[in-house]
Amino acid sequence: MADHFDVLIIGAGLSGIGAAWRLQQQRPGTTYAILESRADLGGTWDLFRYPGVRSDSDMFTLSYPFRPWRGERSLADGPAILDYIRDTARDGGILAHIHFGTRVLTAAFHDGRWSVTTSSGTLTCNFLYACTGYYDYEAGYQPAFPGADDFQGRIVHPQFWPADLDHAGKRVVVIGSGATAVTLVPALAATAAHVTMLQRSPTYIAARPDHDPVADTLRKRLPPALAHRVIRAKNVLITQGFYHLARRRPERVKSILRTFALHHLDDPAYLDEHFTPSYQPWDQRLCVVPQGDLFAAIKSGRAAMATAHIDRFVPTGIRLTDGRVLEADVVVSATGLSVLAIGGAELTVDGRKVNLGDTVAYRGTLLGGIPNFAFCVGYSNASWTLRADLSHRYVCRLLAYMARHGYTTATPGIPAGERRPLMELTSGYIQRALDNFPAQLDRAPWKVRQNYLIEAVTTPHANLRRDMHFSRTPPSA
């Protein structure tokens, strides 16, 4: 391995592979490496292996704009997405640039370059780009359940699904109400004796088809690249339109979601009890169920909902605060993620430790006061890749501008103003991590818009000099 690169990318998941592709395409000749802590690429889609794992974003917007999605299903399963990422890395010649089993521990900026200490040694680079997502790969969020040691069955977390777990013919309780829980329940119910989804409070559920007939027609009649662009644009317009309708007309969207749910589960009282949240749509991310599979499992009797609080675990299952006991052989704790910024790496700039919670995001990609550093974060109301790709292209533009003018460092200023959370969702996993993530302000370029339609137009033409400081400090030998 060389010891110095123009760019180091942290993470070989969906974002890291996309960043490498854009770097090769827009900055040919740039030396780079991808540092991946795990033994394989794919990130989320290699880590999560629980039954039914899939995307709740359509693949025409989650896939890369430069590589058309050719799969049959719009809502694809985890293995298909992982194959897509692997094929992209292989066909793009990116595999040779990935250094597996290389965890970034610290990164120190001094004299115009980063010195990156990893589990495999120390490297240096001119620009550091963190494409690590936002959660901890080593630990999921696990509450301390009273009496858990008394339970005679098995407790598992979806983030670390045991390969030897056989749930066939067994009673399963899935604790949680988010995307993982609503994915697991119908998948487990196919062979389990019975599955109960235990939630403290309801979540909005959107039933969607897993195939897109319009996309299928367009792919038959148009060249792949053109069909991909048209389908992508269609889906962006639909999802962004629905999001903004939800924010402006929440009662209307509640009615729409309820109508779709009643189509699959004709039981108004059941929906009132288990699928009617107290918050407004998109205060938290909507959960998607392809073909209404969760409702189908409930309607068949193979699964059921329980909206209640846990008193404690007992030897045969879980006792609720209302006195009921949910009998279980297996309990799946789908209780959420532990959020972790930039993979837990510690940053310092000229000897000063960087507390990410004190920083402010610049164009949602750079950080105020941190030179030659970018991070990748997706949208909370749309497919992750939409915003990730805008960030990749912005970084490439910035590197080209620096090279053209002979600059060695680019640093956003340190702005003043009212700080706001970077991701304005009320979800528990977001709220638990607010102090550990950068903030945003209420004005551009320090505001992170949750609007791809606007950013797709403005980001490629953004003023690279606005609120930025450039220098020509020669790096030390």
Task: Kindly describe this structure.
The chain is globular and about 70 Å long. Strands 1, 2, 3, 4, 5, 6, 19, 20 and 23 form a 9-stranded mixed sheet that branches. Strands 8-17-9-10-13 form a 5-stranded parallel sheet. A 3-stranded antiparallel sheet has the order 14-15-16, with no helix packed on it. The mean pLDDT is 93. It has 2 domains: 269 residues, FAD/NAD(P)-binding domain (3-Layer(bba) Sandwich); 194 residues, 3-Layer(bba) Sandwich (FAD/NAD(P)-binding domain), CATH 3.50.50.60. The protein is built from 13 helices and 27 strands. 43% of the residues are buried. By secondary structure, the protein is α/β, with parallel strands linked by helices. InterPro entries: FAD-binding_MO, FAD/NAD-bd_sf. This is Monooxygenase flavin-binding family protein. GO terms for molecular function: monooxygenase activity. Its cofactor is FAD. Keywords: FAD, Flavoprotein, Monooxygenase, NADP, Oxidoreductase.
Which percent bin holds the helix content? 25-40%
- Named CATH topology of the largest domain: FAD/NAD(P)-binding domain
Termini separation comes to 19 Å
CATH class of the largest domain: Alpha Beta
